Inverse folding.
């Protein structure tokens, strides 16, 4: 499978670190030309990727990104909407302001909607393409005191993805969702540190409390590459009859099949 994406162009939003970087690296290693977006160029630089600096929460960014990709490459084959984060404070409904709700929905839902809308005309003209929206297990198992606004935005992403798959299937375009659970990224580790600090606890005790609350039979966080490997499979021809599906990568945390 080393050159399975040769000749294909892939966009990975939020592709400079964490899960996004693992996805970008995996697609590149398998032959794709990969474009990554982030607000700022990483200090380590970008090697082997085409980088577009963009704040995806700004509505005009999607059209700018799409225009630059099509002008440079003339096509788009894979879109991975990975940009996202749990921005709202913990504490439940009373702790969330209108701005908290707005920010989580802008980053975790509307960014994907806008990117897809801007690039889909090209995919439709090609009569081919694969879109993979990165969601979260918390969309199905929201934690009221940690992920309320984030979970709701990602739940909307799940429903949108299913509807989009139904619309685009006849046009040769597949849409799937990957829902990670706890993944060992800098963002996740910082999230745990912040909860620990706000509760007067330490990292280890806070991590154990989260693991106990979520319930992970494999008893560890996922590595980013374990998510990226599934994304690469779903984008590949080997998954050409798979669309409209949501795959969990959560170590068995989901209580139902």
């Amino acid at each position: 499978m080393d050159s399975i994406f040769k000749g294909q162009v892939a966009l990975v939003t939020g592709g400079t670190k964490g899960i996004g970087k693992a996805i970008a690296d995996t697609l590149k290693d398998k032959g794709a030309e990969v474009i990554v977006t982030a607000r700022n160029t990483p200090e380590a630089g970008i090697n082997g990727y085409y980088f577009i600096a963009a704040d995806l929460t700004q509505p005009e960014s999607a059209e700018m990104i799409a225009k630059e990709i099509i002008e440079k490459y003339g096509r788009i084959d894979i879109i991975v909407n990975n940009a996202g984060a749990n921005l709202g404070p913990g504490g439940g409904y009373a702790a969330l302001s209108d701005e908290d709700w707005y920010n989580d929905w802008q980053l975790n839902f509307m960014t994907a909607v806008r990117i897809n809308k801007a690039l889909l005309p090209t995919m439709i003209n090609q009569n081919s393409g694969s879109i993979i929206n990165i969601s979260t297990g918390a969309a199905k198992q929201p934690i009221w005191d940690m992920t309320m606004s984030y979970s709701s935005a990602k739940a909307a992403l799940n429903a949108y993805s299913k509807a989009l798959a139904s619309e685009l299937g006849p046009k040769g375009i597949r849409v799937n969702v990957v829902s990670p659970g706890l993944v060992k990224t800098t963002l996740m580790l910082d999230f745990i540190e912040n909860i620990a600090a706000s509760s007067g606890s330490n990292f280890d005790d806070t991590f154990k409390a989260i693991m106990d609350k979520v319930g992970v039979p494999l008893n560890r966080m996922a590595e980013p590459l374990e998510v990226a490997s599934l994304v690469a499979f779903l984008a590949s021809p080997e998954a050409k009859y798979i669309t409209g599906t949501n795959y969990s990568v959560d170590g068995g945390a989901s209580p139902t099949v």
In short: Residues 9-183+223-249 form a domain with the Rossmann fold fold (CATH 3.40.50.720).
